[in-house]
């Protein structure tokens, strides 16, 4: 599990009051919708004034609680903020969130990410900063492999490249800084330049002499110190974005193509060049009820030259927002090159749009040319599927709380709670 389900309990007392709440909103298309701010006003017998609050700062707290045998009991808290920095007709909604988490076994991290849009979207900043001590379950490089420690049966016609990989608990301290600035060129086209500073240290301190771990063998093969390394890079991006809304699009397309180059002159442990691709497409299936949406997402990273430190390999949840691969843990699959794809159907459940639902299916594939039997990209796919609920937080900003349950291969499953859609 990435997140706990405690937030469900906080919502229970709100749902009943939502149906009886009075709607004083006059804006066309939204007067029949109810969000959590309407619910709050109903509970305290106040009138809603969301026709003006669209320009005000909105704040949201999301607590989480999880248990993992390796990390112990983990308690987290996310503070999210939403605001328009320009006129809503010409400026996308800016958002930021800070997540703090700590476990009983001494693991902790702080993560801050944001999407900031200046008036008329002439400039935007996309960032993700993180510092913490992390424990990850490490299964090695490449898809098409499984572990003897995982539950579930494989299909009888499955071909596996070699023996099941060993599984290790990979503990490390990391400092990550990712920031990309985009400038509008014309219409819906943008160009951007990004700075990435990633430092990893204290890796495998408890098993430093274990020469069989995936991190040690990979680092030894590619010339990295196995217990610390740096991956600093610049990225150059071309972006297209004509979505009707950044949080919960009903229609439109988003695309980004970039080159990320790591250089020793920037402090990196090695030189490398990667091609980064992302594509999102949304189709509204109903003119009367546009919340019926079919959405598609692709994210990919391809090594063109050089070498990447082990913990920098692209993989599950490796996108900027860490939302890919629902059904699997962070980094469950990784590769020298990596390709991810997902399709999702979104639909309203209640007539007032307070609660909606989604159903999704995804697949990921990663390469490992240095495996005993080399694994090519697109050779083996790891699928996931699931469903979830959406609770509308603010109808003007289309921000919502996402609660998903995903199921993957080898008996994997998990609950995922976040702010706004996965993509």
TrEMBL record:
GO terms for cellular component: outer membrane. Pfam families: Omp85. It is found in: Membrane. Keywords: Membrane, Signal. This is BamA/TamA family outer membrane protein. The keyword Signal applies. It comes from Mucilaginibacter mali. Residues 1-20 form the signal peptide.
